[in-house]
Design a protein that fits this description.
Elements (H helix, E strand, L loop, with lengths): L5 H11 L5 E4 L12 E4 L12 H8 L5 E4 L7 E9 L4 H14 L5 E4 L4 E12 H15 L13 E3 L13 E3 L4 E2 L4 E2 L9 H10 L5 H8 L11 H9 L18 E3 L2 E4 L2 H5 L9 E4 L6 E3 L5 H7 L5 E2 L10
Parallel strand pairs: 2-15
Antiparallel strand pairs: 1-2, 1-3, 3-8, 4-6, 4-7, 5-6, 9-10, 11-12, 12-13, 13-14
Helix pairs in contact: 1-2, 4-6
This protein binds zinc ion.
Zinc ion binds next to helix 8.
C-alpha cells in the first residue's frame, strides 16, 4: 500500500473525528468468545489520557490498528455525523428506506456495507447538537415505520449518537471508524458508490451534500421527542444529574434495577442482553460487599460486559509507526 497523503488523513479527521478520545479494537480474538472487543487505550506514563493524532488515523487507514470513533464532543454536545446501524436480517432494506427519505430532504447519506447489513452515514456541514439530530432521525423512523432498537424493541435500527448529551469525563458510544480493517472479518468494508481505494472513497464522501444546522432546525421545527420515544428522554436526563465523572468504573452506575440474592446483587447481563439472551434478567451477579467483583453465569467475559455497557476496559495500544513522509 502506498503511504497515504497527509491531506487524506486530514480530510478523514475533518469528516469523522468529534474528539480526541477513541477506542481500539483488540487485534486478537477473545479466547472464549472469538470476538474482537473494543478497548479504551491506556493512559500514558504521566496519566495523560491518550489523544488521537494524525498518526492514529494513519495507523487505522493502513490497517495496523482499528479504531472506534466517539459520537459526541462533550464540550459542545455536538457531532459531525449520524450513523444508522442495521445489523439484522433485512436491515439493508430499512437503510434504503432511510436513504430514499433523506434524499427527499436534500441530504445525501453514504451507505457503508458491513458483515451483516450496513451503516448509513449522514454528514453535517458543521457539528450539530446530538439531541436535535436524534429527534430528527427518530421522527423519520416513525414516519417510515422502522423499529428502533432500545425503544422497547429488542431488534431494530441503532442510531448513533446514542445519547442526547454526555457528562464531562464520560464518553458515550463509539462506532467503528470506517475504511479500516474489520478485525473479525479481516477485511475492509467500503462505501457504495466509489472505487475500493481509500483515496476514491474519501473523494466520494467529500462530494456528498451535508446537512446544515438551518436545515435540521427546519426539519424538527422546534419539536421535542416524538411520542413513542419520549419515554427514552427522562432516563437520559436523570443520567445527567449524577455526580461528575468518577475515574473508576462502577458497574452499579451502568446496569438496570438489581435484586438482592444472598451476598450478591443480581441483574440482567448487558452482554447477554445484546444477543437477546438472559430473558429472566438474572445472569449477572455483583458482589454486594465489593461491587468491583461481578460475574455473568452464562460465561460472558468481563471484556464483553464492559463493551456492551459502552465502557470498554483500558489496554495499551500497539506502537504506531511515525508518519511516512
Ligand atoms: Zn452474560
Amino acid at each position: 500500500m502506498e503511504p497515504l497523503s497527509s491531506a487524506l488523513v486530514e480530510s478523514y479527521w475533518r469528516l469523522f473525528v468529534n474528539r480526541q478520545a477513541y477506542t481500539v479494537q483488540s487485534l486478537r480474538p477473545h479466547p472464549q468468545t472469538g470476538r474482537h472487543y473494543y478497548f479504551r487505550p491506556k493512559k500514558g506514563r504521566r496519566g495523560a489520557p491518550p489523544q488521537m493524532t494524525h498518526c492514529t488515523i494513519r495507523g487505522h487507514l493502513e490497517g495496523e490498528i482499528t479504531i472506534g470513533l466517539y459520537a459526541i464532543n462533550p464540550d459542545t454536545q455536538r457531532s459531525k455525523w449520524l450513523v444508522l446501524d442495521a445489523d439484522y436480517q433485512d436491515g439493508t432494506a430499512d437503510l434504503l428506506k432511510f436513504e430514499y427519505e433523506l434524499n427527499g430532504d436534500g441530504i445525501q447519506p453514504a451507505l457503508e456495507m458491513s458483515r451483516r447489513g450496513g451503516h448509513l452515514w449522514i454528514f453535517f456541514a458543521t457539528p450539530l447538537l446530538a439531541k436535535q439530530c436524534r429527534i430528527y432521525l427518530h421522527d423519520l423512523a416513525l414516519r417510515l415505520g422502522v423499529r428502533v432498537k432500545g425503544s422497547g424493541q429488542a431488534e431494530g435500527i441503532e442510531i448513533f449518537p446514542k445519547h442526547d448529551e454526555i457528562e464531562p469525563g464520560r464518553f458515550g458510544s463509539a462506532v467503528r471508524g470506517p475504511l479500516g480493517l474489520h478485525r473479525a472479518a479481516n477485511r475492509r468494508f467500503w462505501f457504495c458508490g466509489a472505487d475500493h481505494t481509500i483515496e476514491a472513497q474519501m473523494a466520494h464522501l467529500s462530494t456528498l451534500t451535508k446537512l446544515t444546522e438551518q436545515k435540521l432546525q427546519g426539519f424538527i421545527g422546534g419539536r421535542e421527542w416524538p411520542k413513542p420515544f419520549s419515554s427514552l428522554e427522562p432516563r437520559r436526563r436523570s443520567g445527567l444529574r449524577r455526580p461528575p465523572a468518577r475515574r473508576e468504573f462502577r458497574i452499579l452506575d451502568h446496569v438496570g434495577a438489581v435484586r438482592v440474592v444472598g451476598r450478591n446483587y443480581v441483574t440482567r447481563c448487558p452482554s447477554c442482553a445484546e444477543s437477546r439472551l438472559d430473558r429472566s434478567g438474572d445472569n449477572l451477579a455483583i458482589l454486594i460487599s465489593d461491587p468491583r467483583f461481578y460475574k455473568c453465569w452464562a460465561g460472558c467475559p468481563k471484556e464483553a460486559i464492559r463493551s456492551a455497557l459502552g465502557c470498554p476496559i483500558e489496554v495499551s495500544v500497539p506502537q504506531l509507526r511515525p508518519a511516512a513522509l
